[in-house]
Design goal:
This is 4-diphosphocytidyl-2-C-methyl-D-erythritol kinase. It catalyses: 4-CDP-2-C-methyl-D-erythritol + ATP = 4-CDP-2-C-methyl-D-erythritol 2-phosphate + ADP + H(+). Keywords: ATP-binding, Isoprene biosynthesis, Kinase, Nucleotide-binding, Transferase. With 315 residues, this protein is α+β, with helices and mostly antiparallel strands. It has two domains: 180 residues, Ribosomal Protein S5, domain 2 (2-Layer Sandwich); 126 residues, Alpha-Beta Plaits. 31% of the residues lie in helices and 27% in strands. It is built from ten helices and 13 strands. Strands 1, 2, 3, 4, 5, 6, 7, 8 and 10 form a nine-stranded mixed beta sheet that branches. A hairpin with a 5-residue loop joins strand 4 and strand 5. Helix 2 packs parallel to helix 3 and helix 3 packs across helix 4. The chain is globular, with a radius of gyration of 19 Å. It starts with a strand and ends with a strand. Bound molecules: cytidine-5'-monophosphate. Cytidine-5'-monophosphate binds next to strand 3 and helix 5.
Length: 315
């Protein structure tokens, strides 16, 4: 998303993502796993605003360094525990970390106030923190006149997290390496989703830690990713769902059995396909239309198995 100037402030939206395909290959010597994934940004957004000074902000702001940089979070939409809010507001949040890294790279002291409004659930596999980091890089590069190119921003993004480079480009992409090698994909149709985030969130590191316990993959497995992309590119969303897969789902379902219950509910509601995104714990269903998505959402909300969102692919 492109940052927008509003008076003396700047603002930008940070979208969530869904993984329509996620295959984990081998564990690397740096502790990360090589993977191949198809990610799609969706229309569920955090909002980030930068002001030249903190005057006028009502929320308490954490001073995050001697530099005159401050940061506050409004997470009222998420119903978090107080300790989760404290952790979000810490100087280790990816927003101040990204701002400090960018400032160092462009050689100017970081300054002003970042206000983050959270709508994307935490520990959900939706990439909220990574998207906030990418939004910060774009925003700070704009408001501090950094003049860094997308390639230079991508270099900083990869230091912040495996998914951050994906959010620096606007659209679906196949990501490889530990996630930071991004190939933009074109020609995917609009898709309508229902997301269900169970109360229990999952830590990405904890889920990846269990990968070694998974059974070996079939060596003659068909190239599901190519099939998925080809089928989506001809607009056959329903048929494409048979090629979706997420290697981390079985692990996550051991830690959060709600994942399987939500999948069953989405299937029973007539979704074309349903799967967990990323390292979980959110499960998404692919609906036939926006109307169908709203109908499924009402049904799932009544079942009280998690927080329900209706959204669509957006770029
Ligand atoms: O890169 P990011 O900070 O999002 O990763 C969080 C954790 O997830 C890592 O510390 C690592 O344990 C695990 N991970 C992994 N392989 C990846 C991405 C993440 O093992 N490709």
């Amino acid at each position: 998303m492109v940052p927008r100037k509003v008076g003396t402030d700047w603002e930008v939206l940070a979208p969530a993502k869904l993984n329509l395909y996620l295959q984990v290959q081998s564990k690397r010597s740096d502790g990360f796993h090589d993977l191949e994934t198809l990610m799609v940004p969706v229309r569920l957004f955090d909002h980030l605003r930068w002001s030249p000074s903190n005057s006028g902000n009502t929320a308490p702001a954490a001073e995050i360094g001697s530099e005159g940089l401050s940061f506050s979070v409004d997470a009222r939409a998420l119903n978090l525990h107080p300790e989760q809010v404290t952790s979000l507001e810490s100087s280790e949040n990816l927003v101040p970390r990204a701002a400090r890294l960018l400032a160092t790279r462009i050689g100017c002291p970081p300054r002003g106030h970042f206000q983050l409004t959270k709508r994307i659930p935490l520990q959900a596999g939706l990439g909220g923190g990574s998207s906030d980091a990418a939004a910060t890089l774009r925003l700070a590069n704009a408001c501090w006149n950094g003049g860094l190119s997308e390639v230079e921003l991508t270099d900083i993004a990869a230091q912040l997290g495996s998914d951050v480079p994906f959010f620096l480009q606007d659209g679906p992409a196949v990501c490889r390496g530990r996630g930071e090698l991004v190939s933009t994909t074109s020609g995917l149709p609009k898709m309508h989703f229902v997301l269900v985030k169970p109360p229990l969130g999952l830590s990405t590191a904890a889920v990846f830690q269990e990968v070694a316990a998974l059974p070996e993959r079939e060596s003659l497995e068909v190239d599901r990713l190519s099939k998925l992309l080809e089928t989506l590119q001809i607009g056959a969303v329903g048929a494409a769902c048979q090629w979706m897969t997420n290697r981390l789902e079985a692990i996550a379902a051991q830690m959060a059995p709600e994942v399987l219950r939500i999948k069953a509910s989405l299937r029973a509601a007539g979704c074309w396909g349903q799967m967990m995104t990323g390292s979980g714990s959110t499960v998404f269903g692919i609906a036939r239309s926006a109307t169908h998505a709203r109908w499924i959402a009402r049904r799932l909300t009544a079942q009280r198995i998690g927080t329900v969102f209706v959204t669509s692919s957006g770029w």
